[in-house]
Specification:
Blueprint: E1 3-8, E2 17-24, E3 31-38, H1 55-61, E4 70-73, E5 76-79, H2 82-100, E6 105-109, H3 117-130, E7 135-137, H4 144-154, E8 162-163, E9 170-174, H5 178-181, H6 191-200, E10 204-208, H7 214-218, E11 221-223, H8 230-244, H9 249-255, E12 256-257, H10 259-265, H11 271-278, H12 282-294, E13 298-302, H13 304-307, H14 312-325, E14 335-336, H15 344-348, H16 352-355, E15 358-362, E16 369-371, H17 380-385, E17 394-398, H18 402-405, H19 409-417, E18 421-425, E19 438-439, E20 461-464, H20 480-492, H21 496-524, H22 536-550, H23 557-566, H24 580-585, E21 590-594, H25 599-602, E22 610-611, H26 615-626, E23 638-644, H27 658-661, E24 669-671, H28 673-679, E25 686-690, E26 695-702, E27 710-714, H29 727-731, E28 758-764, H30 767-780
Parallel strand pairs: 6-7, 6-17, 9-10, 9-13, 10-11, 12-22, 17-18, 18-19, 23-27, 24-26
Antiparallel strand pairs: 1-2, 2-3, 4-5, 4-19, 8-14, 15-16, 20-21, 23-28, 25-26, 25-28
The protein binds ligand MGD (2 copies), iron/sulfur cluster and molybdenum atom (MO).
């Protein structure tokens, strides 16, 4: 008999509601998934899903997915018991710590971590247990500049302004392609439907992108902008806003400090001055500024393409500044802060340490700054390869594939191969995890419960939904959270007393499970049980956690802060008795209302005002000014490289799903006809794309949609490496864009990888170069 299960798809940020039908299989076969469809009754996504949702089934059924611990031996990979795996991991890591010190153990956390309830909760304790400066995550190849801007301007790294797409009249979008990505730092079911709604209401959408993307093709107006020049465009827009429009200065100064300083900072950036560098006529910039200022409700929104570039840090700041000076920050139809059911901002806002940190220390080799206890992943390889005190000798990865996802992937590949010891907590044997000595694979997503702790902070409406486990995991498997907790307990225990203590803590947490903690967080949140008081179960969970925390000395900062959270007064909001039980009784999820202005209560800066002109940005903007004329194209084979996402991919890890990868090769280099003609290459011809760090060879795809001098290549391919177990992906290997991105090309403020706007040289593969290249490959083999 067919059974329907309702849940949230966790593959991207959009949080679509899905209905998964299962049937009892034949004897011994277990339960079969028969379909994955959009859930019409999910109040957030209203039936919308994308092609990737099928991966919820294919991932579950993928014979290549690992289920039991694996050890790399001279005879290949061997399955071992969990006991042996945990013992060997503990010994391996502790041996490196004993020999080389704490910082010799690195930790890299990948993107799927935050799409997983248990991992979101239990990666931080494992990170803390390692006491190493060498912590990295996908944040520094992604949204770090936006988080830094939030910390600098609003006082909390998670106070991220979300475009109020459902109510705006004018959306100015830079460096985002929601038609492929389904929206980022803008979580919304059917995000393209919502964006099209702006136009249907008579509003405007303007997309600035070096490629006329699927988004730009479907909605609004498109303007080409030269890669990595957004800083100039944004500064010029502000320049016009200050000089030529009437700003409501009194209102701005009610909300923000530093208006005059901001005005001074953009003084030199006239539209005429930036026209060449951006490729946008001065009149167009000027008109956009006037139109934006005139719009009743407008929002400037920028994402990946804008923040992962050389001036990504300043650009993230300028985007917020534009929203502030036009009166659109914290306004319906502008950029708003949301108020999620698990309010991680509210829960942590009283603790400076939990609000975020920047540049408290620097990386050993290159001196790049720390952010939130992490270093930019652009330094990972050099920290492994450069000898000396503090060199990384062992690495743990959780749900990450830095070989394909971080700059100069070849160097990362080499670096991982040189480690004394490596552990990967991952579901696949892939380009990164093949270097591990031990792989600890967790259960699949349908085998555990799910709640989006992170993406609800980024959602365009306040919603709340819990997905219960749908399938029973096979015997003798472990969830991510169990693996992480086990390791945290072991790494925290360095003597008999600590061991005893951590065994106790582990038992308590095992009793609570992620669901128990979630229940507590929901009840403590703005829609929670309070002031009715916690339910008896949650009250008991709270007591248990306090008991566990009491075991720490009073000087232990994190324990003290957590205890504070548990005894915190209820957060303001509409008490609605929200609890896990209530979510279970509403399997399609609950709508908790539209975003509302709330900055006055939520802002965490000392004066409770927005800081409009933080010092670190002013200096960086001056540096940008000095480089106004730097990027002049001199030869037809010089290009600026940008990235590209496809609706049927997800970073590096969904290429092993046949329904998603089949069809035309997507790993191509897009350029326009004029550029192709100048190079004398035709559709499908192979070209070599070269940067300082390496080169890749791939076919050309000639499209009308590229700006002249720009080449676009997707990331996440390059599945040809020896020793992986990705039978389908290997058949569509492609090449890795990150084999040519440059680890030294980073955002000048934060060290975030500048994955977009890199200068590359393109060489057509003539018969002669092809022969030379294949000879080189022979030599390598
Ligand atoms: N299908 C799919 N969905 C995904 C993902 C995926 O891999 N596949 N990944 C998920 C993740 S982890 C994230 S972070 C989000 C990202 O979501 P988005 O930020 O929407 O990411 P992209 O689709 O990469 O869009 C970036 C755009 O920036 C443009 N661009 C490049 N350089 C520049 C520049 O210098 N200036 C300007 N103005 N534009 C530039 C590119 O052409 C591209 O259109 O997507 C998420 N969703
Ligand atoms: N050139 C270029 N590079 C980019 C980008 C770009 O636009 N251009 N985008 C960047 C962005 S936005 C991001 S977020 C990063 C992503 O960078 P990463 O997170 O390092 O890479 P992913 O490809 O997402 O790899 C995810 C890994 O998690 C594993 N995994 C999947 N689900 C689970 C799970 O439930 N548990 C565990 N333990 N493991 C799991 C997968 O097998 C895979 O190994 O890539 C970045 N790299
Ligand atoms: S857009 Fe696609 S991948 Fe993203 S949550 Fe929805 S169904 Fe899943
Ligand atoms: Mo990302």
């Amino acid at each position: 008999m067919s059974q329907a299960h309702y849940r949230t798809c966790n593959l991207c940020e959009a949080m679509c509601g899905v209905v998964i039908h299962t049937e009892e299989g034949l004897e011994g076969e277990g339960v079969r998934i028969t379909s994955v469809k959009g859930d019409q009754n999910d109040p957030f996504s209203r039936g919308h899903i994308c092609a990737k949702a099928i991966a919820l089934k294919t991932l579950q059924e993928d014979p290549d997915r690992l289920r039991y611990p694996m050890k790399r031996t001279t005879d290949g990979w061997q399955e071992i018991s969990w006991q042996q795996a945990f013992d060997e991991v503990e010994q391996g890591i502790k041996a490196v710590q004993a020999k080389y010190g704490r910082h010799a153990v690195g930790f890299y956390v990948g993107n799927p971590t935050v799409h997983n309830l248990g991992a979101t909760l239990f990666v931080p304790p494992l990170m803390a247990a390692l006491h190493s400066k060498n912590k990295f995550s996908a944040t520094s190849v992604d949204q770090l500049p936006h988080m830094l801007a939030a910390l600098q301007m609003f006082g909390h790294q998670l106070l991220l302004p979300i475009p109020d797409v459902d109510n705006t009249d004018f959306m100015l979008m830079l460096g985002a392609n929601p038609a492929a990505s389904n929206g980022s730092l803008m979580t919304g079911g059917d995000i393209m439907g919502r964006i099209k709604g702006i136009q249907q209401r008579g509003g405007r959408v303007v997309v600035l992108d070096p490629r006329r993307t699927e988004t730009a093709q479907q909605v609004g107006e498109h303007i080409f902008i030269k890669p990595a020049s957004d800083v100039y465009f944004l500064a010029a827009l502000l320049h016009v806003l200050f000089k030529e429009t009437t700003l409501n200065k009194a209102a701005i100064e009610q909300q923000a400090l530093g208006l005059e300083m901001l005005e001074l900072a953009v003084e030199s950036f006239s539209p005429e001055r930036v026209a060449t560098v951006t490729g946008i006529e001065a009149a167009v910039i000027r008109q956009l500024a006037h139109d934006f200022a005139k719009a009743e409700r407008a929002v400037c929104y920028g994402r990946m393409g804008v923040c992962t570039q050389e001036f990504g840090g300043v650009s993230a700041w300028l985007i917020n500044a534009i929203n502030v000076v036009t009166g659109n920050l914290d306004k319906v139809g502008g950029a708003l802060f949301n108020h999620p059911a698990v309010d991680l901002v509210g829960l942590t806002s009283s603790s400076p340490a939990l609000r975020g940190s920047f540049n408290r220390y620097q990386s050993r080799v290159r001196g790049l700054p720390e952010f939130n206890g992490e270093l930019p992943v652009a330094v990972l390889a050099e920290e492994i390869l450069t000898e000396g005190k503090g060199q990384i000798k062992a690495l743990i990865t959780h749900a990450g594939n830095p070989v394909l996802s971080t700059p100069n992937g070849q160097q990362v590949d080499q670096a991982l191969a040189s480690l004394d010891f490596m552990v990967a907590i991952d579901i696949y044997l892939n380009e990164t995890t093949r270097h591990a000595h031990i792989i600890l694979p967790p259960t699949g997503v349908l085998e555990h419960g799910h709640y989006d702790l992170v993406f609800n902070i980024l959602a365009v409406r306040n919603v709340s939904k819990y997905s219960p486990p749908l399938l029973t995991p096979p015997d003798n498997t472990r969830h991510d959270w169990q693996i992480l907790l086990e390791l945290a307990a072991r790494f925290n225990a360095n003597n008999a007393k600590e061991k005893w203590l951590w065994q106790g803590i582990k038992r308590i947490v095992e009793r609570l499970q992620p669901e128990g903690i979630l229940d507590l967080l929901l009840q403590l949140g703005p829609y929670g049980q309070l002031p009715l008081g916690l339910t008896p179960v949650a009250a008991q969970s709270s007591q248990l956690l306090i008991k566990a925390l009491n075991a720490f000395p009073p000087t232990h900062g994190v324990a003290r802060q957590l205890k504070q959270l548990l005894t915190a007064t209820p957060l303001n909001g509409k008490a609605q008795g929200l609890s896990l039980a209530k979510l279970k009784a509403n399997p399609h999820g609950l709508d908790l209302g539209a975003l509302q202005p709330s900055l006055a209560e939520r802002i965490c800066t000392p004066d409770r005002k927005v800081i409009l002109a933080p010092h670190l940005y002013l200096a960086e903007l001056s540096r940008a000014f000095t480089q106004l004329n730097a990027h002049q194209r001199r030869e037809p084979n010089q290009f600026l490289l940008i990235g590209r996402r496809h609706i049927r991919s997800n970073n590096s890890w969904l290429h092993n799903s046949l329904p998603l990868i089949k069809g035309k090769n997507r790993c191509t280099a897009m350029m326009n006809q004029a550029d192709a003609s100048a190079l004398a290459v035709n559709e499908g011809d192979m070209i070599r794309v070269k940067s300082r760090v390496g080169d890749i060879t791939l076919p050309v795809e000639i499209v009308d949609d590229m700006m002249t001098g720009v080449i676009s290549i997707p990331h996440g391919f390059g599945h040809h490496r020896q020793g992986t177990q990705l039978s389908i992906a290997e058949g569509k290997a492609g090449v890795s864009m990150n084999d040519i991105t440059d680890e030294h090309y980073v955002d000048g403020i934060s060290g975030t990888a500048a994955l977009n706007g890199l200068a590359v040289t393109v060489l057509p593969m003539t018969a002669k170069t092809k022969a030379k290249k294949s000879k080189q490959i022979d030599v390598l083999n």
